[in-house]
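Job type: complex structure
Entries:
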Amino acid sequence: MLITDLFQETYTALLANKARSGLTILGIVIGIGSVIAMVSVGQGASGSIQSSIQSIGSNLVMIMPGAQRGVGMQVSSGRGSAQTLTQADADAVQKEISLVKAVTPELSGRYQITAKGKNTNTSVLGTNAAYPEVRNVQIDTGSFISDQNVRSMSKVAVIGPTARDDLFGENANPIGQIIRIKKIDFKVIGITKEKGGSGFSNQDDMIFIPLSTAQRFLAGSDYVSTISVQAIDQDSMTALQEQITSLLLSRHNISNPQLADFNIMNQADIVASASSITDTLTILLASIAGISLIVGGIGIMNMMLTTVTERTREIGLRKAIGAKKKDISRQFLAEAVMLTFLGGAFGIVLGWLISVLVSRFAGLTTTVSFSAIILAFGVSAAIGIIFGYYPARRAAGLNPIEALRYE
Amino acid sequence: MIECRNISKIYKTGNVETVALKNVSLKISQGEFVAIIGPSGSGKSTLMHILGCLDTPTNGEYFFDSQDVSKLSDDELAEIRKNKIGFVFQMFNLLPRATVLRNVMLPLIYAGVPKQDREKKAIKALKDSAFPEGFWNHLSNQLSGGMMQRVALARALVNDPKVIFADEPTGNLDSKSGEVVLETFEKLYKEQGRTIILVTHEKYIAERAKRIISFKDGEIIEDLTNHRSKTVQEIKE
């Protein structure tokens, strides 16, 4: 039996029962379509979470103070509360470690800020000129804090778009205007570009001032609350983290790493944990969709069993005129695989349509990957073979004499 | 051509054994037109199934075309049916949604005949079975019973078999279409020297053959050769 004969037999048989074939195919269409749609939504969600993590900066290692703990004291006031990091630490990291691209120390606090009768309560971040590069902040109008500003403890401020809206009204141009932080006047010299919430903190609702100014006039101490370090590339992040740890341990005269008075957070770790969450989500969605695929496969099996029973006499005749077992089983297997293949093809289109609709209306960037399509096709062919195997075997095993007599 | 030695067939249903054939021995040579006759339950259909390589005997030996086929597997039997045997059934058993030509070409698909040769062979077989040319592309379920049986006959002939088995070929036909089918068998026997084995329970149909083997209770009770062949007209008188 030639392949073209097999194809023609299959085609004729499926066309003979258009409604039944159509409904069976629909089962597979829904199964494959939902797998494709769910996987693409899952990948879209993972992509958007990763890009929001990337928006806080790239290849970032963050050093934060450890817990405040005096000698022999049992009470801990919590991680991050200690005042153990200084500008000098930041300078040392910059100077002594070769894997560093840029370092920016930060001192943050929340203050009530007033301007022209309006006021808001927001974060004020003391930092230096390297901040925009390290933390992926762009300037919309004006300029960012310069090294000169830091050296001279200038009372200048760069404000985020949300803080600008709160203090001056939407889309106002406040460059050159005065805001008051802790009763001290600051001159606005720039506005940052809108970034959107990153999930950790709203980077748009912020006011940046020179670090030295923040230390002197707002905090009244020389400590910094975070040191952000940018690695030269992604591969060197772990090495960088180790080098910073040993440098700071020796600077702080701590011999036991367990007692370190600082914590180091690696951006790669955050990305890894976030992507493990979205992977789990994708698997969950895909397995729910997979159940509908199995139901579709059972539909195929049901239809094929009905077909075998209906065509018992035809099978008997085919055997009588010399069809072998494998000729018969191949014919029915081909019908099942053809059904799932058609279902798979339409399912890919359906899944793609759903993911396009999700992108358009849910604002989630979804991608139908090539691998998902290949997977869907493979799965649909496998389902055809698995669920078509039993009916095909049953047809092939029929006794020709009994089959010919079947009423 | 066909030789059986002491073949028997026993069916088992639970603990009950039904003997369908008891030690049957017979020989049929090439070019014979044989009728196997007997009442229902006499074992004639069982014998036809064994002779037609659709089934194997429980005991005994069966040689088809000098080959022992009594112990062959299902697929080996299918191979013999494909190349050497043609069947005509009482119920025609055509593919209803296929055209006449496609029905006739069906055995050629399994026999691996190249596509370009199939139609030529099918047309020859249709002409041999006296099927009218204008209906070649009709769907088979649009035909009358007599026409359907001639399609079935053409299908049996298409691969040039050594033996044609016909199981009650006129059983579902009116006497007029039945007569056309029987005449076609006679013509194939006389003009082409085909070996034909016809199973029936009607005496007047059996008498169209040159040799009549009568069956009763699984045994041959009579084997008549070269009896005088009567026409339908004579029987009616």
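Summary: The mean pLDDT of chain B is 90. The longest helix of chain B spans residues 175-192.
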